[in-house]
């Protein structure tokens, strides 16, 4: 399993990893995010992917665990779209 950083600088902005999950599941989450207006990117051990490379998936491209990232400024929107509860700092 690949290790992906929680926060990365990508294209000049800070992106936050939502999760590390199998490629097909990540692509489903990306569709949900996109439908809600949130930009996302998948990071495989080999590259960054902003578009869903259907041809790569259909031809047996990398299907292992990937990092799913969103811009830090869209993190609250992304979590809401995916049904995650916002973290309450007072609980820590």
Q: What would your notes on this structure say?
A:
It is a single chain. With 92 residues, this protein is an alpha+beta fold. The protein contains 3 helices and 5 strands; from the N terminus they run E-E-H-E-E-H-E-H. It has a 5-stranded antiparallel sheet. Strand 1 (7-10) and strand 2 (13-22) form a beta hairpin. The longest helix is centred in the N-terminal third of the chain and has 13 residues, at 23-35. Mean pLDDT is 83; it is low at 88-92.
In short:
The protein has 92 residues and is α+β, with helices and mostly antiparallel strands. It contains three helices and five strands.
Biggest sheet record: 5 strands, antiparallel
Which word captures the global form? globular
Approximate helicity band: 25-40%
Structural class: alpha+beta
Share in β-strands: 25-35%
Count every beta strand, where a strand is a DSSP E run of 2 or more residues: 5
Distance between the termini: 29 Å
Give Rg in angstroms. Answer: 13 Å
Q: Which fold does the CATH topology refer to?
A: Histidine-containing Protein, Chain: A
What's the CATH C level? Alpha Beta
Cross-sheet strand order for the largest sheet? 1-2-5-3-4
User: How many H/I helical runs?
Assistant: 3
Domains, number: 1
- Secondary-structure element string: EEHEEHEH
Ranges with pLDDT <50 over ≥5 residues?
A: 88-92
CATH-level-2 architecture: 2-Layer Sandwich
Mean pLDDT across all residues, rounded? Answer: 83
């Amino acid at each position: 399993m690949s290790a992906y950083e929680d926060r990365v600088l990508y294209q000049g902005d800070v992106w936050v990893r939502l999760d590390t999950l199998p490629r097909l599941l990540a692509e489903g989450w990306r569709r949900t995010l996109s439908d809600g207006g949130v930009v996302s990117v998948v990071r495989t051990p080999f590259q960054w992917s902003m578009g869903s490379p259907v041809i790569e998936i259909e031809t047996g491209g990398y299907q292992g665990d990937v990092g799913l990232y969103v811009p830090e400024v869209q993190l609250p929107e992304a979590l809401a779209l995916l049904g995650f509860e916002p973290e309450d700092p007072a609980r820590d």
